[in-house]
């Protein structure tokens, strides 16, 4: 069994599991030869002998190997290890588009268009090679750290050149992004991918899919029975031209959609232009040939497969023959007349059986034909309470109980959910319970002073805060330490969208520490003033510096603290030079002191530090000594 830690074909070392799917598991691995990280997709062990799955797995490799595009995940290698098939793919460090939408919604319209143009360019490349993806959805679109979109998972892609007789009407794509023709059981075309791209664009603009329901069949039915909801009703700021791209891409009739992904990209590129500001709403032409009108005694075969319903119906072309409800007795007219006497009991049993059969047929027809209710509950999620009431009133429904819940997704006063759920069929006049957002979850701000900024900022952003950093180069605290916070500790606030400013100690500019051995007190103070330094000193301020910390040449930042020791005075005693360990005579000291005093005088005159009297200096030195003790 393949698992993390193994090395495939003495080359690919699996490090961890990235994901597990119905067909294969994906691992992060390291290519030991090319020294790079890759993603390895390994066909599940229980599917190794499934010919259909093997065919799909190999199809993904063959389909993607033909494609060389910056917005399509590349396939590097195909192999087999311990009897298990695997693909080696480009590793995309980031997330998928579904997660990206959830984390960054609302997304600026320009960024939405930029993402879609990347995706459309990749789809056009696949279509140019006669490859239809068939399962386009945000989960199959990866977004790397540089916000580059890459389409993955061509596992159910179908080549247009494949023999149509080998194709089945099974619905393998995701139902939320499924085209109406696929829901009816027809073969997918380029326009089927265009429809899925329109649904993806809808989700990027609204943060949700257009159709939801209690089952996959319910959602699939909506795709070919209901129009895609208006994105401008969700957000009136969306330009009409941008909404028209969604409407045209998701037209029920494939012939009214964009002829290609490239055409959709060109239309999308100008959707924010001022010249299209007054563009009318796109209204698809009403066609009568969405499929021949026919009486269906059952759901289309595609929807039966989708719902996993076990039925014995036989399918021939577009005709669905229902299984017989009950067998009836038909006499053989060619058989010789045995002239048996009629059996009243047997006749009665046959009549009962016939009556039951007729009743079952009628019940079945009524269940299929008659609606379960009068109206379907509209989608009011994200609406204000007044908007939701108006929408429900138009649908001939009332408002039941109203309860509140905290929500980081919906603003205060917006509808979070309904009971019954959206799309449920109920009687006209029924009451619908609403769950209303009371706003984001409230968070008690902690005391972050003295903590490390990077850790605090990361935690606060996860809570929903917007964190701003203000640097303080004059602090003596270690760089990166939080000095102040704009929101007081202990205050309870709604974290989502709240801005908190943290003042952080900064190292400031750096410089090399000078040699202070020829500086007297005034010279040291002037140097410190020029470099924004804090000085701690010991000894008599009438002498020269005999020791310094940091040492000469050490890299020091603005705002740092330095320590110096002054000689006790100008005597004949020698002093130790902290920088080179040599001993100077008193005469040389006196000469150095005179030079130092002249240097210090010029230094002090150019600085803001006042010259201190001898008595004041001694008092300050004494005070500093007491503080040091």
Automatic annotation (TrEMBL):
**Which reaction equations make up its catalytic activity?**
L-seryl-[protein] + ATP = O-phospho-L-seryl-[protein] + ADP + H(+); L-threonyl-[protein] + ATP = O-phospho-L-threonyl-[protein] + ADP + H(+)
Indicate what this protein is called per its UniProt record: non-specific serine/threonine protein kinase
Keyword line: ATP-binding, Kinase, Membrane, Nucleotide-binding, Serine/threonine-protein kinase, Transferase, Transmembrane, Transmembrane helix
Query: By which gene is this protein encoded?
Result: pknB
Q: Where is the composition biased (Low complexity)?
A: 572-629
Q: Which SMART domains match?
A: PASTA, S_TKc
Q: Which GO terms describe its molecular function?
A: kinase activity
What NCBIfam families does the record tag this protein with? PknB_PASTA_kin
């Amino acid at each position: 069994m393949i698992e993390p830690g193994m090395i495939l074909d003495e080359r690919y070392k699996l490090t961890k599991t990235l994901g597990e799917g119905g067909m294969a598991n994906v691992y992060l691995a390291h290519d030991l030869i090319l020294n790079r990280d890759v993603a390895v997709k390994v066909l599940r062990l229980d599917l190794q002998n499934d010919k259909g799955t093997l065919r799909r797995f190999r199809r993904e490799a063959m389909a993607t190997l033909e494609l060389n595009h910056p917005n399509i995940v590349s396939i590097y290698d195909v192999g087999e290890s311990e009897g298990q098939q695997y693909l080696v793919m480009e590793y995309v460090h980031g997330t998928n588009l579904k997660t990206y939408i959830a984390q960054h919604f609302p997304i600026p319209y320009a960024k939405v268009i930029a993402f879609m143009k990347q995706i459309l360019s990749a789809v056009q490349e696949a279509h140019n090679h006669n490859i239809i993806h068939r399962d386009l959805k945000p989960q199959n679109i990866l977004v790397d750290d540089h916000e580059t979109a890459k389409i993955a998972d061509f596992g159910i892609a179908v080549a247009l050149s494949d023999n149509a007789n080998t194709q089945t009407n099974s619905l393998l794509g995701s139902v939320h992004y499924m085209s109406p023709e696929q829901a009816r059981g027809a073969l997918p075309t380029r326009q089927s991918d265009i429809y899925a791209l329109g649904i993806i664009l809808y989700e990027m603009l609204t943060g949700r899919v257009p159709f939801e329901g209690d089952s996959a069949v319910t959602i699939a039915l909506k795709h070919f029975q209901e129009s895609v909801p208006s994105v401008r009703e969700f957000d009136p700021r969306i330009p009409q031209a941008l909404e028209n791209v969604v409407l045209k891409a998701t037209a029920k009739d494939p012939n009214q959609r964009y002829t290609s992904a490239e055409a959709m990209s060109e239309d999308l590129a100008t959707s924010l232009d001022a010249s299209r500001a007054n563009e009318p709403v796109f209204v698809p032409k009403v066609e009568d040939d969405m499929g021949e009108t026919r009486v269906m005694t059952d759901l289309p075969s595609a929807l039966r497969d989708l719902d996993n319903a076990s039925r014995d119906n036989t399918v021939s072309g577009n005709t669905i023959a229902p299984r017989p409800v009950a067998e009836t007795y038909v006499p053989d007219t060619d058989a010789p007349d045995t002239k048996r006497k009629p059996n009243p009991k047997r006749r009665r049993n046959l009549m009962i059986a016939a009556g039951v059969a007729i009743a079952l047929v009628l019940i079945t027809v009524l269940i299929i034909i008659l609606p379960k209710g009068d109206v379907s509950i509209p989608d009011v999620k994200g609406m204000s309470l007044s908007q939701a009431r108006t929408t429900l009133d138009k649908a001939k429904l009332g408002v039941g109980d109203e309860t509140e819940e905290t929500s980081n997704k919906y603003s205060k006063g917006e509808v979070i959910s309904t009971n019954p759920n959206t799309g449920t069929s109920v009687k006209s006049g029924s009451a619908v319970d609403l769950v209303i957002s009371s706003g984001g979850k409230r968070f008690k701000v902690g005391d972050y002073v003295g903590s490390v900024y990077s850790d605090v900022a990361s935690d606060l952003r996860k809570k929903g805060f917007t964190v701003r950093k203000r640097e303080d180069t004059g602090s003596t605290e270690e760089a990166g330490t939080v000095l102040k916070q704009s929101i007081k500790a202990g205050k309870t606030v709604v974290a989502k969208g709240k801005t908190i400013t943290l003042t952080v100690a900064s190292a400031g500019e750096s410089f090399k520490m000078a040699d202070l051995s020829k500086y007297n007190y005034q010279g040291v103070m002037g140097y410190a003033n020029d470099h924004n330094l804090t000085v701690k000193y010991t000894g008599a301020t009438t002498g020269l510096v005999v020791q310094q910390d940091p040492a000469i040449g050490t890299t020091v930042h603005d705002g740092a603290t330095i320590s110096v020791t002054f000689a006790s005075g100008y005597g004949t005693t020698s002093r130790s030079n902290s920088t080179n360990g040599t001993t100077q005579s008193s005469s040389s000291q006196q000469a150095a002191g005179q030079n130092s005093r002249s240097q210090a005088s010029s230094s002090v005159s150019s600085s803001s530090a006042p010259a201190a009297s001898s008595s004041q200096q001694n008092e300050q030195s004494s005070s500093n000594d007491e503080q040091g003790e």
